[in-house]
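Sequence design from tokenized structure. All designs in this work follow the same two-part layout: the structure record, then the generated sequence. An example of the structure record is given first.
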């Protein structure tokens, strides 16, 4: 299980932002408007098609005060479904982390997968998973501590690496660094 949900854009192995659910995106010169062109033929688990209205609905849902994600997208001023497969997001001010925040779910996905596997709800038995490795190692902590140490360190460094990568992308995209 790579993630529990897909993102509009992602970060590739070279640290570049690449399309995911959006096949392309464009950023205005003032860095306040982002336009995403969505891939056609993508569906939710229930068969409902992914379209601009669905993306608009979710971004507006995140903006609600009771959403745990509201602080992540505070500068979002408006979300507009331009046509069936085009979404335009307008920010109140340039906000370098905006595009990065659409990519950084990877760290959360790693922790979620490890937690679910530790609890026996994630990867199937026999499939490699850091969470299931930690679960299996807990009875050997006194005699073979490394069985838990290395999967734990792998989770730690993977999440840290994605966070640092996101930080680097944010700095590269921050308009204040262009002076």
């Amino acid at each position: 299980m790579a993630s529990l949900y897909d993102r509009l854009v992602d970060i590739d192995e070279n640290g570049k932002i690449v399309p995911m659910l959006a096949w392309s995106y464009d950023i205005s010169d003032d860095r306040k408007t982002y336009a995403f062109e969505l891939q056609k033929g993508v569906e939710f688990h229930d068969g409902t098609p992914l379209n601009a209205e669905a993306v608009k609905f979710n971004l507006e849902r995140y903006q609600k005060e009771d959403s745990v994600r509201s602080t992540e997208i505070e500068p979002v001023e408006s979300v507009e479904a331009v046509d069936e497969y085009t979404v335009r997001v307008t920010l109140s001010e340039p906000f370098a982390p905006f595009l990065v925040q659409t990519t950084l779910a990877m760290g959360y996905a790693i922790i979620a997968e490890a937690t679910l596997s530790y609890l026996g709800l994630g990867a199937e038995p026999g499939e490699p998973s850091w969470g299931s490795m930690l679960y299996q190692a807990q009875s050997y902590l006194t005699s073979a501590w490394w069985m838990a140490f290395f999967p734990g360190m792998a989770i730690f460094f993977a999440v840290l690496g994605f966070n640092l990568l996101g930080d680097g992308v944010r700095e590269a995209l921050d308009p204040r660094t262009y002076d």
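Helices lie at 52-63, 97-101, 105-118, 130-137, 146-173. We note this feature because it recurs in several other targets discussed in the main text.
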